[in-house]
Amino acid sequence: MNLFRLHCHYHCKTVLLILTVGAVTALSAVSPSHNNVVILGGSGRIGTAIATHLIRRSSALPSSTGKIILVGRNAEQGQRSVQEVRDAASEFSSDGNSFAVEFKSISDVWDSKQLSPLFHNAAAVIHTAGPYHNRYPIPLRTAIETNVPVYVDVSDPLPYLDASLELNEDAISSGTKALIAAGAFPGMSNLMAMEAAGSLPPG
């Protein structure tokens, strides 16, 4: 399957999940024609933390011409977030890589017409702009339709996850590797706790 679901009700190997998340930072393996990393909810705490982490791992990003694009609604907050990411990551930038960080303002991250232009030539889309309740996974569907190689989100409602999993065949056809429900609850932290607990001696 191209869609991976992180949920404590599913028995997945932590190492597989880590490798899947690693696909986001191991972007050098992605086609050179895909250079940008798009972060929906990019001006939020999770979005800026992800952007900073990616720059710190700059040797794994696809090329020196790539961009990290923070996406949100508030332009003023977005520009502050861009500066925050630049400041936090400046000491980690390597001599061979200098990645632009910019902000794109859109009115609705659930509107495929606004998302599609941003997703073209993207190496990865990371969707942190919840809440996901009573939503359909339009960002995932748009990523699949635009052949984005890597998609990650932090969704959690079960109906949303089920709707995402229904897109699996389309993801396979488009070559999109998608990791859904990669957030703290439910997510990898639950599975790592289970893995750690399983390694403890009885009693």
* Overall SS class: alpha/beta
Question: In total, how many beta strands?
Answer: 7
Main sheet, how many strands, which sense, barrel? 7 strands, parallel
N- to C-terminal distance: 37 Å
Stretches where pLDDT falls below 50 for ≥5 residues? 6-26
**Beta-strand residue percentage:** 15-25%
Helical content class:
25-40%
Q: Quick one: overall form?
A: globular
Count every helix, treating DSSP H or I runs of 4 or more residues as helices: 8
For the largest beta sheet, what order do the strands appear in spatially?
Answer: 1-7-6-5-2-3-4
- The secondary-structure element order is EHEHEHEHEHEHHEH
Using only C-alpha atoms, the radius of gyration works out to: 17 Å
Molecular structure report:
With 203 residues, the protein is α/β, with parallel strands linked by helices. The protein is 40% helix and 17% strand. It is built from 8 helices and 7 strands, in the order βαβαβαβαβαβααβα. It has helices at 14-25, 45-56, 75-89, 112-119, 138-145, 158-165, 168-174, 188-198, and strands at residues 3-5, 36-40, 67-72, 100-105, 122-127, 150-153, 177-180. Strands 1-7-6-5-2-3-4 form a 7-stranded parallel beta sheet, sandwiched between helices. Strand 3, helix 3 (75-89) and strand 4 form a beta-alpha-beta unit. Helix 2 (45-56) runs parallel beside helix 3 (75-89). The longest helix has 15 residues, at 75-89. It is globular. The N and C termini lie far apart (37 Å). Mean pLDDT is 78; it is low at 6-26.
